[in-house]
Design brief:
Layout: H1 5-10, H2 12-17, H3 25-36, H4 38-55, H5 57-61, E1 63-69, E2 72-77, H6 80-101, E3 109-114
Parallel strand pairs: 2-3
Antiparallel strand pairs: 1-2
Length: 119
């Protein structure tokens, strides 16, 4: 390859001189999953399933997991009456069940948010 000062300045020469070494399939797949955001989709489905397991079908139909951020499970609820009931009377039991049955999720709190579009 002829010496081209522009290639050197732009970093092309260094990149061309590097030899590609084989990578482990696990590393390549994890990079692909991260790049495409597939882990987040799977994670959200796993959280939704965990929520439905402890909340039950009726509450599960009227609510959905929004996100898990820093150990706080944010749950959208379809109406204010259900939000008040969950936050005031059922939060501690739901949290304990999530922590026991899904310890790997490391949920330390639940926050309920009104999301009227869930109706």
């Amino acid at each position: 390859m002829p010496h081209d000062p522009f290639h050197t300045l732009r970093g092309f020469a260094a990149a061309a001189e590097k030899t590609a070494e084989p990578q482990h399939v696990r590393k390549v797949l994890s990079e692909l999953v991260a790049l495409k955001g597939l882990a987040r989709v799977h994670g959200t489905e796993q959280l939704q399933q965990a929520w439905r397991t402890v909340a039950g079908d009726e509450v599960g139909r009227k609510s959905r997991v929004l996100e898990l951020s820093r150990g706080v499970l944010n749950v959208g609820v379809s109406n204010s009456a259900l939000l008040n009931e969950l936050a005031g009377f059922h939060k501690q039991v739901l949290l304990e069940q999530l922590q026991q049955q899904f310890a790997h999720l490391k949920i330390r709190d639940i926050k309920f948010r009104l999301k009227t579009e869930l109706k």
